[in-house]
Recover the amino acids of this structure.
């Protein structure tokens, strides 16, 4: 599900933010920003501050992005995975698109129950000598406690909206939010602890080797302070640890599959 | 199995609960999914490999730069000496490594210490080539305000900066021109050693200049104890650099913390060096003054006479000024006065006229002229102007801003840059591919620095180097006996540092000066000089294979 096509990704990003796509051909995209998006991306807080003070509505900019390097013209911004603009858009997404509450769209003319799922996308980082990330998308049925992995892939095939569809009603959760999240954490914890942690062992071993070398280096010297600082640095660099970071999550009301 | 520390994320669920309480705002499905996709795209799914490459499509890395970055990240765990020869792109390697760590979320706070003259250049390269938001240190910025700061050693080690910097916890520290840290008793060394840092890169083209203990000291910053403790190291290897050759074990250890690419193994030779020696003859009047000076034995110590002769080969002005300074009493004045008077009578310098020819032959392309003497620099600037050629001066003594400005002027407006020796270090002028050595430095290392300004990473064309020498003068001896004999321009460049260290020659310049001053006749000096170059050449042949192993 990673971004395979930057151009399409940008189209959806700006469309989702209600920006009109003025010009959209292969490799070149011009959008009319909204005020909200101009504030988010164009880095001109003073303009907005003064224009509002003067009672003007303000004039959001247009933005032209070139996604195909062949189409570069020297005037407009070439955008690629490493460019500061993508970085900006991604951090804009990370800050703003963290929480949600959504409903599966069911086309029905009789009463249908929608069940609450707690869905979280969690990035697990394994850090030893080097670092590696893994993404887990996990869903918990807040009534019967069933869990599902690769939840995002499954949701992708459904129609999902912000509002509850006609004739549908929601079932109240049996499992509270916090304890539901605890269950998810517990499962992930077991998942990582069950793994083979050669990387961590290797890192620990290097750490010990370096600390031993260090003691040898300082042997007979009275530079207690220096040695402690060096040891701290080695520990900081090599002590293996794992972090969980929730990228985003929310409550999804879904139709029961079994029925 | 040891327990591994797991850090949970408690922020999310609390934030979510709050959001539910306030009934939103909630992300739309599209944006929610896009955030997930973005996170999938930016994560690093394996311990190995360079993720940064996906993010730098505009960069065209050379093979040795890629393997260097990989090795530092994967095998050296982020602490290394980058010791490529001048011009192979150490900055590029360092930038790539820093980028990789930042992308993997391992580095946030970085301190980059570089020579004052290079601060702006580093900032520009990191920002433009790597999209790393590095700022140069300004007085009004507190040290904890910005994540990636570039500064000079002089600023960093001065109070109150020193204290503030020592309080920071840096994820990444980089020191350029790190051979300045080779002595563990200096303030610079102790300052760098006491910085709190996780990853650390030391950049130098000359990791061992004289004694092996220099590399011991550099390694002590990165990995104390890797080469044992100080006393036993000194005892075992201290004085003698040859030990490196004999001791395969030591070499292996060093290779674990140091990467050295040479022009040879970096396949850098795609760009050719065209080297041409331009022989010229003094005009009759000039020759007369030269002999007059050469034969005036009594007044000058031999040492300064050789300098005066070299100066006369460079410009009337350089020699004249030095002579003026020597008139301290009447007997001296008696001897010097006739010479200075003769100099005053001289026409324009033959060499300067030749240089104008050479510049005109370059057909409007940019040319760098290197001279050893300030007075010559001023004279040349005037003389080129007389001949309708635009030029800008460049000196080591210029302030940072002025250096940048001069470089800009040269790139966009002037045809010629006239640099004195001190200007050799640091500036990158790969947009220029003609270099005139107006006079040759006696230390061939400095010549390497000079050529490295244009024959470096980023140079797209073959480079043309012209060495101008006057027949029948001291310049001829140096040119034929030293430079040409050891084939310096083609071969030895890049190896000379190790060769000289091998021979225990600390300062080749004073070595040569001694040869001239202690020889009774020109003939004797010639023979000694010849011997010196023979030894250098022999050592070069011996070390050539060794260098291959010493590198990667």
């Amino acid at each position: 599900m990673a971004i395979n096509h930057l151009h399409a990704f940008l189209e959806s990003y700006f469309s989702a933010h209600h920006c009109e796509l003025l010009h959209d051909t292969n490799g070149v995209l011009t959008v009319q920003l909204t005020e909200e998006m101009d504030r988010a991306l164009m880095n001109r807080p003073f303009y907005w501050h003064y224009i509002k003070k003067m009672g003007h509505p303000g004039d959001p900019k247009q933005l032209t992005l070139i996604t195909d390097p062949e189409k570069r013209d020297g005037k407009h911004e070439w955008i690629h995975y490493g460019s500061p603009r993508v970085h900006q858009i991604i951090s804009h997404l990370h800050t703003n698109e963290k929480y949600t509450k959504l409903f599966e769209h069911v086309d029905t003319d009789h009463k249908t129950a929608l069940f609450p799922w707690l869905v979280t996308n969690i990035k697990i980082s394994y850090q030893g000598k080097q670092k590696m990330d893994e993404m887990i998308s996990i869903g918990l049925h807040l009534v019967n406690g069933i869990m599902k992995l690769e939840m995002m892939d499954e949701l992708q095939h459904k129609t999902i909206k912000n509002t509850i569809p006609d004739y549908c009603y929601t079932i109240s959760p049996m499992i509270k939010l916090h304890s539901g999240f605890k269950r998810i954490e517990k499962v992930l914890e077991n998942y990582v602890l069950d793994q083979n942690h050669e990387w961590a062992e290797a890192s620990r071993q290097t750490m010990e080797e370096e600390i031993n070398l260090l003691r040898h280096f300082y042997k007979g010297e009275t530079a207690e302070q220096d040695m402690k600082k060096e040891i701290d640095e080695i520990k900081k660099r090599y002590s293996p640890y794992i972090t969980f970071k929730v990228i985003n999550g929310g409550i999804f009301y879904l139709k029961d599959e079994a029925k | 199995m040891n327990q591994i520390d797991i850090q949970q994320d408690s922020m999310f669920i609390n934030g979510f609960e709050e959001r539910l309480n306030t009934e939103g705002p909630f992300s739309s499905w599209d944006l929610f999914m896009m955030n997930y996709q973005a996170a999938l795209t930016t994560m690093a799914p394996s311990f190995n490999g360079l993720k940064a490459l996906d993010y730098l499509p505009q960069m065209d890395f050379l093979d040795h730069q890629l393997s260097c970055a990989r090795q530092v990240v994967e095998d050296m765990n982020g602490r290394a000496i980058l010791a490529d020869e001048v011009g192979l792109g150490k900055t590029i390697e360092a930038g790539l490594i820093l980028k990789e760590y930042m992308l993997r979320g391992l580095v946030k706070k970085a301190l980059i210490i570089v020579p004052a003259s290079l601060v702006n250049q580093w900032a520009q390269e990191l920002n433009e080539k790597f999209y790393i938001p590095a700022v140069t240190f300004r007085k009004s910025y507190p040290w904890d305000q910005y994540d990636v700061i570039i500064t000079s050693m002089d600023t960093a080690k001065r109070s109150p900066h020193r204290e503030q910097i020592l309080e920071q916890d840096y994820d990444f520290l980089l020191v350029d021109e790190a051979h300045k840290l080779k002595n563990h008793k200096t303030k610079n060394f102790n300052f760098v050693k006491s910085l709190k840092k996780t990853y650390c890169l030391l950049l130098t083209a000359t990791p061992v200049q004289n004694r092996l203990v220099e590399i011991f000291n550099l390694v002590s910053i990165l990995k104390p104890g890797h080469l044992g403790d100080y006393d036993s190291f000194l005892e075992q290897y201290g004085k003698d650099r040859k030990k490196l050759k004999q001791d395969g074990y030591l070499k292996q250890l060093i290779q674990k913390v140091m990467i050295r690419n040479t022009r040879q193994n970096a396949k850098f030779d795609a760009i050719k060096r065209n080297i041409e020696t331009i022989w010229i003859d003094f005009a009759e009047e000039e020759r007369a003054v030269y002999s007059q000076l050469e034969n005036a034995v009594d007044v000058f110590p031999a040492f300064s006479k050789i300098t005066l002769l070299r100066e006369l080969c460079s410009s009337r002005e350089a020699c004249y000024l030095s002579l003026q300074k020597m008139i301290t009493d009447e007997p001296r004045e008696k001897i010097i006065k006739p010479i200075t008077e003769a100099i005053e009578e001289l026409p324009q310098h033959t060499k300067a006229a030749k240089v104008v020819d050479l510049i005109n032959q370059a057909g409007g392309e940019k040319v760098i002229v290197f001279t050893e003497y300030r007075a010559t620099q001023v004279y040349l600037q005037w003389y080129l102007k007389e001949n309708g050629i635009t030029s800008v001066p460049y000196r080591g003594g210029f302030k940072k801003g002025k250096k940048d400005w001069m470089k800009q002027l040269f790139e966009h407006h002037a045809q010629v840059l006239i640099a004195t020796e001190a200007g050799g270090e640091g500036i990158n002028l790969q947009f220029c591919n003609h270099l005139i050595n107006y006079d040759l430095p006696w230390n061939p290392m400095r010549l390497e620095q000079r050529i490295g300004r244009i024959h470096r990473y980023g140079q797209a064309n073959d480079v043309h180097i012209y060495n101008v020498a006057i027949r029948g003068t001291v310049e001829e001896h140096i040119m034929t006996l030293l430079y040409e004999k050891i084939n310096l321009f083609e071969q030895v460049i890049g190896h000379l540092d190790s060769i000289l260290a091998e021979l225990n020659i600390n300062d080749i310049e004073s070595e040569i000066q001694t040869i001239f001053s202690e020889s009774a006749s020109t003939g004797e000096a010639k023979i000694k000089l010849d011997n010196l170059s023979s030894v250098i050449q022999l050592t070069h042949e011996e070390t050539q294979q060794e260098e291959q192993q010493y590198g990667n």
Summary: Chain A has a mean pLDDT of 92.
